[in-house]
Design goal:
- With 501 residues, the protein is an alpha+beta fold.
- Helix content is 23%, strand content 32%.
- The protein has twelve helices and 27 strands.
- The strands form five sheets. Strands 21, 22, 23, 24, 25, 26 and 27 form a seven-stranded antiparallel β-sheet that branches. Strands 1-2-3-6-5-4 form a six-stranded antiparallel beta barrel. The protein has a six-stranded antiparallel barrel with strand order 7-8-9-12-11-10.
- The longest helix has 16 residues, at 3-18.
């Protein structure tokens, strides 16, 4: 600090002292800083106000047990044919009234989890995985009361289940919050039944939002460092107002215990599902009838959509609403019902939350130009399975008329290769990949023998020589990459962008 600056500061302080303002100048920063930094003095009042609404869930599954010669015999030892003869002997003695030990034919397995009451009449929420396949579900309250529960409905995709109990008097219930208002850094309280201990309370903050842990098509978890352990599943995550912002569902842990990374399904995700389960006993989600994939920089460049955005249509269901509306493989959906699609996983969540039968506008990019399609949504059937991209693997493949292009060994579709890779009859065109160079970009993109190359840069591939010709034309034209449409053995397609050497 210069001499002039020192004098100036000294003069300012002296004038402030004369005016009686120094105390205020010093006190303001000191008082404001701790208030911003510290959390609540205590969470005892909050815990006391919500604990009676949080319950333990006991789910019991009875499994018929029929022992075979490969299963364990008496004493846990491997059984033999003599064990089966012994069982038959005992069975005959029992039928003849001669006594003998009763043979166990069933076994029970039990799981413990958490839940919470959302309606005083007896509506309880938990995770689907807590009660899945259970023959008997019991809800245990903080006062020790145990009530048998009826499963009103459950949904595997969002991992939520709705239970109904019949209490003698109204129950303590809690409400859902608008989880979209939860901010990173907000304090939260987790209540549940970790390791079967019951009634445990842990606190932390919202660590992150919209986490994708690849557990389902609608992942957008709230991440928290509030301790969540085995048995906490299905329990509530509260904000400081005592409202539920999420259902504690999963943890990331190498040991099975909390390491400070837990995940809760947001309230805004589960509420529509819970309402449908209560009303219909099942979910009724909107359905577009398309298979989608991410758009990376290379694909965006090849399709001429500018910045990386949207959901790339990899295939269209022949019986789906998108087929009727004219959507095609290669279209990029950038807006759905007025909402921007930043990445592909945004689309399923928006479609699922839209009422069945609603007419929506879908903005797509096709051949570098935007188009708007009007689509009347269908219903996503409960039994619908997400398409698998797995393909049969084979080693030491014979090279029948194979030609190398893009690090791929290609052959014409023959009956022999169809049988070898179990390719369905609906796959009629293209060339089959019989080998992949492990040092190539194709290997890095996980292309596999048994998949079928259908198109290169949206032009059909007739035979291996045609593929080589198309790749050469792209190289001669100065292209740095090629956009492939590839199908698996079942005929499900996806896009792959490969660099040109």
């Amino acid at each position: 600090m210069t001499s002039a600056a020192s004098v100036s500061l000294f003069t300012a302080l002296r004038r402030a002292l004369a005016a009686g303002l120094v105390g205020a100048l010093v006190a303001l920063p000191l008082a404001a800083t701790p208030a911003r930094a510290k959390g609540p003095d205590s969470l005892a009042d909050l815990a006391a106000s919500v604990q009676d609404a949080v319950v333990n869930i006991s789910a019991t599954q009875t499994v018929d047990q029929k022992r075979s010669s490969k299963e364990a015999g008496p004493g846990g030892q491997p059984s033999t044919p003599f064990d089966e003869l012994f069982e038959e002997f005992l069975k005959r003695r029992q039928q003849q009234g001669q006594g003998g030990p009763e043979l166990p034919r069933q076994r029970k397995s039990a799981s413990l989890g958490s839940g919470f009451v959302i309606d005083a009449s007896g509506i309880v929420i938990t995770n689907n995985h807590v009660i899945a396949d259970a023959n008997e579900v019991t809800v245990i309250f903080t006062d020790g009361q145990k009530l048998k529960a009826e499963v009103i409905g459950k949904d595997q995709k969002v991992d939520v289940a709705v239970l109904k109990v019949k209490p003698e008097k109204p129950l303590k219930a809690v409400k859902f919050a608008d989880s979209d208002k939860a901010r990173v850094g907000d304090w939260v309280l987790a209540v549940g039944n970790p390791f079967g201990l019951g009634g445990s309370v842990t606190a932390g903050i919202v660590s992150a939002r919209n986490r994708n842990i690849d557990s389902g098509p609608y992942d957008n978890y709230i991440q928290t460092d509030a301790s969540i352990n085995k048995g906490n599943s299905g329990g509530p995550l509260f904000n400081l107002d005592g409202e539920v912002i999420g259902i504690n569902t999963a943890i990331l842990s190498p040991s099975g215990g909390s390491v400070g990374i837990g995940f809760a399904t947001p309230a805004n995700t589960v509420q529509p599902v819970i309402e449908q389960l209560q009303k219909f006993g099942e979910t009724r989600r909107g359905w577009l009838g398309v298979r989608i994939q991410n758009v990376d920089d290379t694909i965006a460049e090849n399709l001429g959509i500018g910045q990386t955005r949207g959901a790339l249509v990899a295939g269209v269901d022949d019986k789906g609403p998108s087929k009727t509306a004219g959507l095609k493989a290669g279209d990029v959906i950038v807006k759905f019902d007025g909402k921007a699609i930043k990445e592909s996983r945004d689309l399923p969540k928006l479609v699922a939350a839209t009422p069945v039968g609603k007419e929506v506008e879908v903005l797509i990019v096709r051949n570098g130009k935007e188009q708007t399609k009007s689509i009347k949504l269908g219903r996503l059937e409960d039994g619908e399975k997400l398409a698998s991209n797995d393909s049969p693997k084979s080693e030491n493949i014979e090279k029948t008329a194979a030609q190398k292009a893009l690090g791929l060994e290609l052959s014409s579709l023959s009956d022999e290769l169809r049988n070898r890779f179990q390719i369905k009859e609906n796959v009629k065109n293209g060339v089959i990949i019989t080998g992949v160079d492990p040092r190539s970009d194709a290997a890095d993109k996980r292309l596999q023998a048994g998949e079928i190359l259908l198109e290169i840069n949206q032009e059909p591939v007739a035979d291996p020589a045609d593929a080589v010709k198309k790749v050469k034309a792209l190289k001669d034209g100065g292209k740095k990459s090629a956009l492939l449409i590839v199908a698996n053995a079942q005929g499900d397609t996806h896009f792959v962008a490969l660099t040109l050497d």
